[in-house]
Amino acid sequence: MLARLKAIFLSVWPVLVCLILAGPWLIPALAHFSGIGHRWVDIMAQFTAPALIGALVATVLVAFLKRPPLMIVALVGLMVCVIAVLPQAEPARGAPDRSAPVLTVYSANLNAENGDVESISASIRDADPDIIILVELGSEAFNARDRILADYPYQQASDRVVGPGHRGSVVIASRYPLSPVDMPRDQLSALHARAETPLGALHLVGVHMTRPWPFQYQWGQIIQADLLAGRLEGVTDPILVAGDFNTVSSARIGRQIKAQTGLTPAGAWPGTWPTELPSWLGIGIDHQWRSDELVFLSRRIGKRTGSDHYPIVTRVTLARSQPSR
Fold it and tell me: How does DSSP assign 129-192, residue by residue?
């Protein structure tokens, strides 16, 4: 009897080990594929990128079991995780107009508690952007913005909000003239400006959405995404929206923004949060979105600012053909 149990254990334990190693990483991937917007499913769908890294490590470990059928199972799980990440890592790129100028756009959540003005300034200098969109400026960064943005003569800033529990100010800075666009006071922390650039008139919006459920009430992000779409109604110029959306672009809120605004995000890998981890292990919750008249030529992670978010640096140009909206 003991010999039989031992034989069963020896035949089963590699399967159990394979399932323990590879199985959990499928949960975020399946949450993504489900398309279900329920808060429990949506919160799991935020972690498809870390799940891919976990599935890759699991596949390597399963290889040490030297069981070809189990290796196939692990590889299938890995492929499922890869496919789940692709919509946020490689969204539609568009066809660029190679004769059009190129702008560099820098966006970052600076963290309201971050007073490292030197690191913020160094990060911006390193990127050498034409347009800067910053969210969650605390008192120290807000007060030092003339120093941080010394090379940018055109600036717009939202009302200074630095009290405990607030998300801070939003600032847009540019090498090209900016004019403010009226925005209502509502639940969305945002700033809207119109820039006269070598690409023509460009509407710039800096956005900071609330944290998702369970950290905030479940309808918060949904309401704010709806408010963002409302503010962009009637805009016929090219649009670039950037900031901290507290969600990956392929989850519920990202899908809502795409559906309601028609905007397309830049790729969101490597991730932007948290900076305690290397960016390739992080989650892409900070984004830049473009209208169809624009194309992202590239997207990279910028130099650290002292915040718990990595900045994003993109290169933007006009699309080959200008579709009407």
Answer: -SEEEEEEE-HHHHHTHHHHTTT--EEEE-----STT---EEEEEESS-EEE-----SS-EEEE
Beta-bridge partner residues of 293: none
Residue 164 has pLDDT above 50, yes or no: no
Q: Which residue has the tokens 């972690």?
A: 47
Scan for tokens 């909000």, then name that residue.
161
- Residue the block writes with tokens 């590889």: 75
Work out the average pLDDT over 113-128. 96
Closest to 213 measured CA to CA, from 75, 33, 38: 38
Domain boundaries, the chain: 2-89, 103-318
- Strand pairing category for 131-137 and 103-109: parallel
Instruction: Note the maximum CA span of the chain.
Output: 84
Q: Please provide residue 115's backbone torsions phi and psi, each rounded to the nearest 5 degrees.
A: -110, 20
Residues 260, 252 contacting (CB under 8 angstroms): no
Give dist(CA 76, CA 118) in Å, integer: 47
Q: How many CB atoms lie within 10 A of CB 86?
A: 14
Q: Which residues of 144-162 are buried (b: 16+ CB within 10 A; e: fewer)?
A: bbeebbeebebebbbeebb
In tens, the pLDDT along 66-91 reads 888 889 989 999 999 999 999 999 89
Question: In CATH terms, is domain 103-318 a member of 3.30.1130.10?
Answer: no
Q: Retrieve residue 179's tokens.
A: 């004019």
CA 244/CA 132 separation, integer angstroms: 14
CB 132, CB 121: distance < 8 Å: no
